[in-house]
Amino acid sequence: MPYFDAASSAPLHPVARQALLAALDEGWADPARLYREGRRARLLLDAAREAAADAVGARPDELTFTSSGTRALHDGIAGALAGRRRAGRHLVHSAVEHSAVLHAAAAHEAAGGTVAEVPVDRAGRVAPGAYAAALRAAPGPTALACLQSANHEVGTRQPVAEAAAECAEAGVPLLVDAAQSLAFGPVPGDWSLLTASAHKWGGPSGVGLLAVRKGVRFAPQGPADERESGRAPGFENIPAVVAAAASLRAVREEAAAEAERLRELVDRIRARVPRLVPDVEVVGDPERRLPHLVTFSCLYVDGEALLHELDRAGFSVSSGSSCTSGTLTPSHVLRAMGVLSEGNVRVSLPLGTAEEDVERFLAVLPDVVRGVRGRLGAPERAEEATAASAGSGAGGSGGEEAELVVDSLGKLCPIPVIELAKVIGEVPVGGLVTVLADDEAARLDIPAWCAMRGHAYEGERPADRGTAYRVRRQA
Fold it and tell me: Among 27, 33, 390, 448, which has the highest number of CB atoms less than 10 A from its own CB?
């Protein structure tokens, strides 16, 4: 069964498995002890730290092993904010950071700090100069800025080196979340702190990396501990750490050649999915992106149903759709980009993905999408065109504006958009359709539908229940 969700967790690399088994026999003792077994464990831990630091581009004494990438983010942000408390209490981050950064920012704000969010464009990328502008607009001195190296949902690479230079000029440290990109190479630029997670590159779960450059003010939070420079309390999981470092080195050696092959496979998906499946939007930067990841959204599709059907067809994929996450709120990444959230599919290919598996996925996808749309009663292109033609003479007379109200209250995505598509032809060109909806996803998906279908979105207004979304028919 092809596994296409490496961005969530990559399969355990063979080198990681070998290193883990070997370290279980050799690295079980306390590395803080001076007897033979302790010294052997310390040698394994030190060697792993040197290998990981070399891959990151840091000194061994700048790198700490944590219990996860999320833990590394929380500890890195908390420690940097505490270390620079006298400098300021302002935090800057992009709108598409991992949820761990958003949670840390919310905790900082609840404790009396201030937070600013840097917007992204429709491709999910921070504009050049955006961090410099955010630092200038800060209500007070900025303690820390955060920027991921590449986005976990759409694959867009961020201008880390440029943002790091902007932050350095302002005297502000930059923390980089490198979880998605580290397997493909070190992060460029003069960053100050860096985090990553081993299971993203084929290492074991339960190992994160936190690198803090010398000279960065950093105050670990929580009770003091003598292990990991006081930044990650508790006994080190030496076998997992050894496996993480060994697999990172192995993956990095493979990635140079493998990245080009995976990029070609992803390019194939990006080009052919819109031709094979009508009403699809491929999202993310088409060039400045991770080589193994592509995300697209399908109109008139329930994300959860689509993923279940793909699973039944033998493909493991992921989604940022609100329908799939089990909430009424679309992915914060897709919302920040302003792109369609319904029917969202993320394909992230692990190293070694076979070309025939990608071809089979492209062969299966059209029928899967067609089946899901059919069960939801979604309109087809030809049917919409017929409805539009039949409805071209409808509406008011004597100069009155034609308007149709669609009540989608209590209905979840993608039903409000499907109902809008079915009736748009019942008003003349220039007429209005108002959709009443209380699903938060409608705020994102109705404007995205208008952009895809050539109609004018005229904004929203409060209604007695839910929100009224206004669409003017243009074609």
Answer: 27
